[in-house]
């Protein structure tokens, strides 16, 4: 039998490698901007068209390439950044694998114009699908300019897999944020279809963060600055009172490179323990500087997973320096921190250990069920729809009826139809509602119940032709960071059909003229901010059903929070409304709304 194994041609090998490095337009942006950083540029401009699907253009004023290097750069494993395996342990550059350009050239139409300072003429190279079309001298600026067109033109499966422009643009914005934050000394501009998304001037770290995320963040930022023999940690953390409902603005960088690090994230979260209201997350922007020999960047082609030699010690240092910063800045009152002390390994059990934390203030008087407006941040309870049943006595019948309409998969986990056997309904820990039913004790999650109620109301609004919008007496303006502004723009139409009347009002600013009639909204801008946070964190795939997903996000954003004390009639009203829903057992994003603790279980627990 003849031999059958052959080496793949370079173009095919490159295409396969491209699958790992280049997943979407944002990966092209990341790789090319990182190359510009490595080339010593202090000005980088990025232009994208159609979310990068048609064009990604990146120009820098870095060192440029000679004609030979320009051609070599597109070869696989061709790099100027390392020479031998031992160099892998002292990496100071963003790139080193020599894969990006070969990968990009394998799956796109690439034009390169590049010139070194000392050269009179630059080099022009045109490569399509790994095929060199042209190489010639050209007059161009010092530095490098890449134009990547028609990404994945020869990988139709990949091209089809790309998400909507808004999603792909968002990924690009995220990549730019991850590069802009640790490099405030570099001027970075990003344009989408010729309109600016970011124009970030050279700045210090703090101002860069504010330029990227909006000036409202400024007041929240607390400095972190700690140097030990092992690592230096600097950056900013958000004050607990500005913590957000979602994990949006949490960034770790090591030696200027963005990384995900769940273990270190935990160190931050533990430092905030008892300082944060339930279900909120602090912002943080932490830059770790360490000897490159102590980390391994080469875990994954995208280099966002990084292994640390001294993970446990660094955990301690992060934890201690955050506690110290929170203390020094009077975020934690009554701690007398040693302001000059710096942390050494092993860590002394000092300062942070005897901290007395202030209580979390929750407005117990706030009542989302009150008809009049309150200053509650998350909007308030919806007005009853005309169809709502007010009579609690019959809710179990409604529940029974509702069961017939449940989807089969929901039915599996549905408790048996219950008879309401008493009138006692209690609230537990301002979180659960307890009520006896025939087979035991029914426990209802009040927030999820409210989400379900609101969601079904929004869906009715979406399906009806007429949209009830409640005009604001004083229209509110809201200023967003560019990424959120893009997102809001992309869902404005859907919000309109839910009853929001929001218009663009200058760069990244919007004016809210009206809110959905079914919501009593006391602070529309907060609802919109929370809605965006929820929407950002919803599964990307679910967004193909955009309207439904927005209704879910809005329900989550405006549902009453845990920690809200409810009066008897408000509990009744909530239960009444819940069992008027078509699917009372599940929240709109599929979480359990209620459970029944069987009487036998309660009895059993007394037998022991
Ligand atoms: P890596 O960055 O891992 O070395 P790339 O494929 O991204 O691999 O780039 C290959 C080489 O091309 C780099 O090592 C560098 O020498 C050169 N290069 C790429 N982009 C630029 C740029 N913008 N300016 C100067 N040189 C560049
Ligand atoms: Mg590179």
Secondary-structure blueprint of this entry?
Blueprint: H1 10-21, H2 25-38, E1 43-49, E2 55-60, H3 67-72, H4 100-106, E3 109-115, E4 122-128, E5 131-138, E6 143-149, H5 156-161, H6 165-180, E7 187-192, E8 195-200, H7 205-213, E9 221-227, E10 231-238, E11 250-254, E12 257-259, H8 262-271, E13 284-290, E14 295-296, E15 307-308, H9 311-328, H10 395-404, H11 408-412, E16 426-428, E17 432-437, E18 440-445, H12 446-463, E19 469-479, H13 482-498, E20 501-504, E21 509-516, H14 524-536, H15 546-558, H16 568-578, E22 594-598, H17 599-607
Parallel strand pairs: 1-7, 11-13
Antiparallel strand pairs: 1-2, 2-6, 3-4, 3-6, 4-5, 7-8, 9-10, 10-13, 11-12, 14-15, 16-17, 17-18, 18-22, 19-21, 20-21
Helix pairs in contact: 1-4, 2-6, 6-13, 8-9, 12-15, 12-16, 13-15, 14-15
The structure holds adenosine-5'-diphosphate and magnesium ion (MG).
Adenosine-5'-diphosphate (ADP) binds near residues 64, 81, 97 and 101.
Low-confidence stretches: 332-422
Average pLDDT works out at 81
Shape: globular
* Number of contiguous helices: 17
Instruction: Give a count of the beta strands, DSSP E runs of length 2 or more.
Output: 22
Bound molecules: adenosine-5'-diphosphate, magnesium ion
Integer-rounded radius of gyration: 28 Å
Report how far apart the termini are. 74 Å
Helix share bin? 25-40%
| Spatial arrangement of strands, main beta sheet | 5-4-3-6-2-1-7-8
Relative strand content = 15-25%
By secondary-structure content and strand pairing, the structural class works out as alpha+beta
What summary fits the major beta sheet? 8 strands, mixed
